[in-house]
């Protein structure tokens, strides 16, 4: 889950990875040392997506022109 610009551990709410407005995170293990669990969040343009929520993987569009 994302709270105040950070991806936080869903279990213990520890801040794990900073998420910017245009951050994209996919297929990257994020390890919580407290829970000793790896999470695989999908973050697209700063918004967390559900496991079965598709997103348009188009880096050239994400990097820019329309914003
Ligand atoms: Zn944790």
Question: What do these coordinates show?
Answer:
The chain is 6% helix and 34% strand. The protein has one helix spanning 59-62; strands spanning 2-3, 6-8, 15-18, 24-25, 30-32, 37-39, 42-44, 47-49. Strands 1-2-3 form a three-stranded antiparallel sheet, with no helix packed on it. A three-stranded antiparallel sheet has the order 4-7-8, with no helix packed on it. The longest helix has 4 residues, at 59-62. The relative contact order is 0.21. The model has no long low-confidence stretch (mean pLDDT 88). It binds zinc ion. The site of zinc ion has 7 residues, from loops. Residues 9, 11-12, 14, 32, 34-35 line the site of zinc ion.
Give the helix/strand layout.
Elements (H helix, E strand, L loop, with lengths): L1 E2 L2 E3 L6 E4 L5 E2 L4 E3 L4 E3 L2 E3 L2 E3 L9 H4 L5
Antiparallel strand pairs: 1-2, 2-3, 4-7, 5-6, 7-8
The structure holds zinc ion.
Zinc ion binds next to loops.
